[in-house]
Amino acid sequence: MTAATVEPEERRREQRAWNWYDWANSAYYTTVLTVLFAPYMITVAGEAAGCVDADDTCSKTVSVLGLDVAAGSLPFYLTSFATIASAFILPVVGAFVDRSAHKKWHMAGFAWAGSFFCALLFFLRGDQWQLGAFAIVVSSILGGCSLVSYYAILVDISTEDERDAVSARGWAFGYLGGGLLLLLNLVMVLGHDAFGLSKGMSVRVSLLSAAVWWAGFTIIPLLRLRDREPQGVVREDGSLFQRSFGQLFTTLREMRRFPMTLTFLVAYLFYNDGIQTVIYAASTYGSKQLRFGDSVLIATILLIQFVAFGGALFFGRMATTYGSYRTILWGVVGWMVIVVAAIFLPEKNVALFLVVGIAIGIVLGGTQALSRSFFSLLIPRGREGEYFALYNACERGTSWFGTFLFGLVFQVTGSYRPAIFALIVFFVLGGLLLVRLDPRRGIEEAGNAVPAVV
């Protein structure tokens, strides 16, 4: 049964249910991975390393699998390892998902397993960093696995013409949910004395709250989505695990038959790497180059979260009129303007810094949401899990390019201004590849119906 054969009201009901998983998992990515985990892990590992004041930058080392790692670098090595491991694991998971008639259960299973390991971060205290290190790596990988199934379900519950709006609403819902929990957690962490908590305990409770939020709200899409039989799967012999690997290798061989799909995937790798690096580097640029305090940076993070909610919806409406392909291209141009504007920001000018934050929020949710929906149009039916796994795996496997370039330019120039400007190369390369792409041809080659507006 395809989405087009389902009654519109039934599709809308499932689409609303599907949106709840964006709401559920965004709490983990905002509260844990983006804001609270890294500084707290540095504090705990710093105590284990013997730093005099673990809240300061610590260059003393802890031993990780026999290697000496600076306590101040530990969380970044852990997330990098999880990212690289995901690049190998996710494609196999995607091939498995394509052959299953229980995508929603795979989504929920990976989500609950990930939230369990996330909950173990509550025990990250004193100088006991090892359990937290293991938990963050495993929870990050499992979170990526859950998204493979989640993205694949998008194709089952929406027609080609609906896909942009559904993806945009989901992404907007995710920013709203993630931003709401982050706001509550930051209030608790910054005002921990008023709640009768130590700073460390307030952080641990916040990390635990993200796990509970993730697990709890996953129940909604699990109950309201329907499982469907797989379609268009290439026949492979052997066990389900062996067939999953066989399908993966078949798809990798056949990707040359879909040059537009491959072109978009490479374009996405470039401009998404630029997006992720801008987000990653924004706090460093604001604190070290523009001399803002923590209060301004925290306010900007929250502002971006909530503006991104409206930005995703705005881009979704733009795509309805102009098509997702053109809207993504305009979004990439918007990122170029933001990067150029950032290098001219004067120090300690809060108003202009917030204006740039608003601009980031507008294009952030929109470009990511429409990239997801547009890529779904370029995927052959029955290969959604595997192609979205490649989409996520390639994104994770190359996400260090931007941070490497940012660090390298700073090392050479001694200033963060040319370092932030250097990121424009990712948006230029991504934009040039998008210009070369023929969206209608790509959709037709994948065997999908071309939307009324591409």
UniProtKB/TrEMBL annotation:
Transmembrane residue ranges: 20-42, 74-97, 109-125, 131-153, 173-191, 203-223, 262-283, 295-315, 327-345, 351-375, 387-410, 416-435
Superkingdom, taxonomy of origin: Bacteria
One Pfam family of this chain: ATG22
PROSITE patterns: MFS
InterPro entries assigned to the protein according to its UniProt record, in alphabetical order: Atg22-like, ATG22/LtaA_families, MFS_dom, MFS_trans_sf
Keyword Acetylation appears in the UniProt entry: no
Keywords: Membrane, Transmembrane, Transmembrane helix, Transport
Membrane topology annotation: Multi-pass membrane protein
Matches recorded under Gene3D superfamilies: MFS general substrate transporter like domains
Key word Hydrolase present: no
Subcellular location: Cell membrane
Domain Major facilitator superfamily (MFS) profile intervals: 260-454
Record-linked PANTHER family: AUTOPHAGY-RELATED PROTEIN 22 (PTHR23519)
Protein name, entry field: MFS transporter
Species per Swiss-Prot/TrEMBL record: Nocardioides mangrovi
Lineage: Bacteria, Bacillati, Actinomycetota, Actinomycetes, Propionibacteriales
